[in-house]
Amino acid sequence: MLLRWYSKSALRTKLRRSVPSSNPGTVHPAVAARTRFAPSPTGFLHLGSLRTALYNYLLAKNTGGQFLLRLEDTDQKRLVEGAEENIYRSLKWCGIEVDEGPQQGGPYGPYRQSDRTSIYQRYAEELIQLGHAYRCSCSQERLLFLRDSAAALKPPTTVTYDRKCLHNPSETGDIIRFKSPSVYEPFDDLLHGHLNLQQQYNSDDRRYDDFVILKSDGLPTYHFANVVDDHLMRITHVIRGEEWLPSTPKHIALYRAFGWEPPQFTHIPLLTSMADKKLSKRSGDIGIFSYKERGILPEALINFVALLGWSPPRDTPGVSVDETMNLSQLVEKFSLNHLTKGNVKVNESKLIFFNKQHLQQRISTDCDSVAAEYFPVFDAATGHKFDITYLKKILVALGPSLQSLNEITTNHAYLFTDDDIDFTKGTPTFKKIVQRFLELWASPFAESTTKICEEFNVKKKDVFQSLRNALAGGAPGLTIPVLVEVLGDDTAVKRLKKYVNA
Ligand code: GLU
C-alpha cells in the first residue's frame, strides 16, 4: 500500500483503514534477537515507554538473545534532570534486566549517545565520501524562508529543502545533510506488513527530504545516531511506537547508503484512554513510580503492560487463557505473531484485577519482600511510626481482600491510629455489649459472643457491630478475632475501654 505523508495523523488513519486486521503471518524470529530500548532522557518512564522496553526485553529473552539499553541524549536542550536515573530505577523495579547498557557496559559501548560523538562524526564523513551526504551552509533565515515558502505550495509538499548546497558544494558548512533518495524503499513491518511510505512533492517547485544528520553543534540528529548505533550494536529487531513509523523509510535509506542491512521493524500501536483519546495524566500518562505509590506491585504492572498490544495464544480454540502471568511466564509466551493492531485502550480496572491476583500470590509466597519494599511507602503515607512486623501481620490478614496495597492506608487507617474512630458511634446497648465483652476478655471469643447474646437478648451481628465500631470505627474487612489479633491485646483493650467511656 502506498501512503503519502500529509501529516502524522492522516498517516495513522490511512494505516488503520488499509491494513488487514491480522498479522502478516509468522514473523516471530527463530534465531536469537538482539533488541534495544533507546529512550531519550527527556522525562520519566511512563506506561508507553515501559511497554516498548518490555516488548524488546521479552523478544530478546524469548529467543535467547540480548536486551540493550541505549540512551539517546543528543538533543541536549530537551534533557530532564533525573530522567536518566528514573529510567534505570524504573526498569530495575519492574525486573527488566539490561544485558548491555550505560551501567552494565558491554562490547559495543559506550551506550550513551553523548559519549559517541566522534563515532557519528566519522560516519557522517564517510557518508560524504560515499556521495550520500553533503555540507550545508544555508543561513537560518534562508532555511526559514524555505520552510514558509514550502508550506504555501499547492499541491502541498512535505519536504522543504531545495538542495542549494548540494549543487554549490561548501567546504565550510557546519551542518551535514543526507542526500535522500527521490523514492523511498518500501519495507515490511512485522506487524503492519508491506508499507510504501513516500513524501509528497510539488513538481513545479521541487523540494527534497535531505534531512540533517549532523547539527552545527557537531552532534548527530536522532535519525542518524539511531541508525549508526543500531548497526554498530548489531541490533536485529526494533520494536518501537507507531509514532516512529514516518522515520523508518529515512532510516532504511541511511542503512542502504552505508551498504548495511537494516534490522527488522515492528511498530506497535499507540496507547489511548478508554475514551480513545491521547493518554492524559489521569488516564495513565504518569511516571512508573506513581503506580508503586498507589500500592501496585511491579509484577502486576508488567502483566498489565504486556497485554497492551499482545495477547497470549489460546492453546485450545474457544477456551480462554489465564492472562495472569509473571515476568518469566511472559518471556516464555511472548511472540511477535500475536501482537494486536489498532489503538490500545488502557483499562485500569484490568491493572487492579492483576494486582489483586499478584498480591495474593506474593503475600503467600514472599510476604517479607512486599513488606520490605512497601514499608517506606506506608511509613510516609501514615506518618505514624510502626514496625515492619506489624505491616507483615496486616498483609497476611488483609492480603486476600486487597486490590492494591494502598487500600491498607485508605480503607484501613484504623490499623495505624484511632484518630478517626468515632467512639460515640452506636446505641447505649452497644456500649454495654462492649463493656461485657471486656469483662469476658479471658474467655474464648465464640463463648463470650454467645453469652452476650443470651444476656442482652441481642443478635450476634449486634455484638460484632459494636466491637467493630470500637476497634475499627465500623470499617469492614477483618473478622473481630483477626482484628484483635492484628491490633494486639493492648491496643484492642484500650480502644474497647475508650468506647465504653466515651
Ligand atoms: N529515542 C527514541 C525515543 O525516545 C527512540 C525511538 C526508536 O526506538 O528508534 O523513543
From TrEMBL:
Entry-linked InterPro entries: aa-tRNA-synth_I_cd-bd, aa-tRNA-synth_I_codon-bd_sub2, aa_tRNA-synth_I_cd-bd_sf, Glu-tRNA-ligase_bac/mito, Glu/Gln-tRNA-synth, Glu/Gln-tRNA-synth_Ib_cat-dom, GluQ/Sye, GluRS_core
Alphabetical UniProt keywords: Aminoacyl-tRNA synthetase, ATP-binding, Ligase, Nucleotide-binding, Protein biosynthesis
UniProt-listed Enzyme Commission number(s): 6.1.1.17
CDD domains assigned: GluRS_core (cd00808)
Catalytic class of the enzyme: ligase
GO MF entries: ATP binding; glutamate-tRNA ligase activity; tRNA binding; zinc ion binding
Stored NCBIfam families: gltX_bact
Similarity remark: Belongs to the class-I aminoacyl-tRNA synthetase family. Glutamate--tRNA ligase type 1 subfamily.
Protein name: Glutamate--tRNA ligase, mitochondrial
Organism: Meyerozyma guilliermondii (strain ATCC 6260 / CBS 566 / DSM 6381 / JCM 1539 / NBRC 10279 / NRRL Y-324) (Yeast)
Higher taxonomy: Eukaryota, Fungi, Dikarya, Ascomycota, Saccharomycotina
